[in-house]
Amino acid sequence: MSEHSTPLRIRASVLAGVAVFVIAVVLVSAALVWNARKVALADSEAQGTRFVAGAEAALNRSLLAVDVLLASTDELLGLAAAMPDWIDPEVASQRLRSSARQNLMVRFVAVLDSTGKVMASSDAAGSALQVQLPLGFLASVMEAPVSTLMISAPVVSFASSERVLYVARYLRMADSSFVVAVAELPVAALSSVLVQGVDITGLQVTLERAAGQLLLSVPNREEAIAPMLTPPLADLAEDGQNWDAPARLNGEPALVVYRPILYQDLRIAASIPRAAALDNWSNQRNAIALTGALFVAMILAAGWLALRYLDRLSLARMAIAQSKATLDQALESMVSGFMLLDSENRVVQWNSQFERIYPWLKDAMAPGVPFQRVLEESSRHHLARGTHDERMRWVEQRLLKQKQHEAPHEQVLPSGRTVQITERPTPDGGLVITYHDVTALRQASAEIESLAFYDPLTNLPNRRLLMDRMQQAVAASVRSAQFGALLFLDLDHFKTLNDTQGHEVGDMLLRQVAQRLKTCVRREDTVARLGGDEFVVMLHELSANSDEAAAFARRVGEKILRKLNVPYTLGGISHHSTPSIGATLMGGTLEPTADVLKQADIAMYQVKSQGRNALCFFDPQMQIAISARAQLESDLQIALTGRQFVLHYQPQFHLDGRIVGAEALIRWNHPERGLIAPGAFISVAEDSELIVPIGHWVLRTAAEQLAAWQNDARFNHVQLSVNVSARQFRQRDFVARVVEVLRETGARPHLLKLELTESLVLDNVDDTIAKMGMLKTKGVRFSVDDFGTGYSSLAYLTRLPLDQLKIDQSFVHNLGVRHTDDVIVQTIIGMARNLELDVIAEGVETQAQKDFLAEYGCLLFQGYLMGRPTPVAALEALLDSSVPVQS
Length: 887
Known about the structure:
Blueprint: H1 8-77, H2 89-100, E1 108-112, E2 118-121, H3 137-143, E3 150-151, E4 155-156, E5 163-172, E6 178-186, H4 187-195, E7 204-209, E8 214-218, H5 233-239, E9 245-246, E10 253-260, E11 266-273, H6 274-277, H7 279-333, E12 337-341, E13 347-350, H8 352-357, H9 371-382, H10 388-404, E14 409-412, E15 418-425, E16 431-437, H11 439-453, H12 463-480, E17 483-491, H13 494-501, H14 503-518, E18 526-531, E19 534-543, H15 546-565, E20 568-570, E21 573-575, E22 579-586, H16 593-609, E23 615-617, H17 620-641, E24 645-654, E25 659-670, E26 674-676, H18 682-687, H19 691-709, E27 719-723, H20 726-729, H21 734-745, E28 752-757, H22 758-762, H23 765-776, E29 781-787, H24 793-797, E30 804-807, H25 809-813, H26 819-834, E31 838-842, H27 847-856, E32 860-862, H28 872-881
Parallel strand pairs: 22-23, 25-27, 27-28, 28-29, 29-30, 30-31, 31-32
Antiparallel strand pairs: 1-2, 1-6, 3-5, 4-5, 5-6, 7-8, 7-11, 9-10, 10-11, 12-13, 12-16, 14-15, 15-16, 17-19, 17-22, 18-19, 20-21, 24-25, 24-32, 25-26
Helix pairs in contact: 1-2, 1-4, 1-7, 9-10, 13-14, 19-21, 21-23
């Protein structure tokens, strides 16, 4: 469509409106820019005025302080009552030094005679100070009719090579002669007084005389001779304060604000260049201009869009017609059937998919047909043999569902297919109905439901279905007073088969086990697979007598044992597998199914612990033992975090009676049960892997004790032995953690002895040697505990970096009683002597045992005869009181 489709009058009105808005935006933007410029200049003018007033006050205070300092020189040195020859340079210099120290701006104060010679000064040079005053400055000070403070032009100090000003006034002595008090002021110090930390963009500050001679400026000008600034400030005053005056330092158009100070016709001037004052305004101007341009662009765009809208309005009518055609095409391509009803419940539109779902309605469909007539026609097909009343009731129920607009409902066709019907109201009171064939979905749902309750590998009921059937069986047994039984099976060494032959072979075994189990039970019993290699057999209503029910369950379990012990053929290989079976009765009381399954599981693990391939019934004592063990494990966790463990130390003696060391032994200080020996909890700690953090705590605590004794001559020779469990020693970071403990505590490594059991050493000897070797390089010592109880002691002794052998107490107890034990002890001691190893005997409880050991050459002893395990305080007391005793 061409642009002439829009009437010219309407187009002209749109363009006129655009023009008015554009002009308004331009005028407003210009006004905002001009006002912002005035505000920026006014703010800068106010800043300059405030700055000059503050700078004037600050400079007056500073110069007045210097003036007072110079004027007080007369009284300080007593010049008015003294003759020039009376002045002692050293005394006068010392007084000037004390006085000048109070004014931080002054580099020095000096008293000069009329010829310029220094009579005294606050400088360290005293009267020998060389003062180079500007040419003619001394004469101008002396010629003043009244003694007043005079300020020189800036010069470069020969002493400090920095620009300075000299301020001076003359003083009269007793003989009416004049001397001059002079102070040197750094220009930089006065500059900081002027600026006062003020931050004004582009600010130029000058201190100048009325005639224009520049004394100092910020920023600083480094001319050798003070320049004359033009025009003088008095000439600027005639023109009034404006933004066209030349800046005092660079001559740019600027606002110049100045004020006189107290001394010698001096002026402070502040110049703010107009460009600097308008710097921020430039940004504002640009922002306003950009915003105005955006508004203009938006107005122009809005006008263009309005024109385009007018041009396209007629195209919309054509688009609507085209959209209707597209909608019809989309409805025909739908996979669902579709029907549209108007507010009178009459048919407006439908698609061909609806006719494919309900082919018997094809001839009955027409626009404007009441939907009730469609339903009546459909009822003849659904209820082909029904009466008229039955068909009417069917139609009424269908219309009732339509009025309720509930969630989608389903309809089963005579062909067996399932159609899901969804009805949604339209804004005008009509109704949109969709018909979706969900036959395949319902079939898939049924298949999924089957998969949810059955194991896909063996096609046995899974855990979910088993628990449901168990719950029903327990409830039924309570009602019928009939006991049932539960058998929990686990295949022995199944993981080994999987690891060696692969999971495919393992799956073949599981399927064959499932088949054999089903041949061992009745039709009403349940065989289920829990997962992995675990199966459960549930036997229903065996007997009203528990003993008879248990006997029946045992017969079934033994039958299963026989069946599952027959070799299997798995992919061409013969494999022998055995089960471990735990059994428990169920019924009599309504107990949770999870508890029944747990009882059978506990009984099965009892079989595992007794050698596998057997049947065991659940004993309540098993549950008590397991619960007690679980509680003990939980208490150990609390003990570890709650610091309930303590160390006791059993002393180790030399034959001469000296205490040479001690063995650290853990005790559990239980808040309710008191002190508990390690035999009651160490095995549980080892099974639950708590032995690793517990062992690390023992190691660190013993190391901390060694560090505490380190600076005490009474105890710093004592060695501590620490038992290391196999699980702790096999940790990958064991060596690193021992080294870390020694480093953090500061304990000396050679006083720490780690005791390893013989079985630990024999398990993975190469790893043992590597770890012991690394710790030996740090100085840690090693002992083999319970030596002589293993099977390969002699084979590894020469390879291990050992320091000591500990004779097991089982041999010590039989000394003098059983000849073979005497021979073993003598052999161990002789072998250790040949290998240059220490030998210590543990469990020495009688003097006769000690005498036997001493006779055989043993020098170190540990046992109740010499000392029991005690807290560290008791051990320290024993160490204090022990003296060598000949045995």
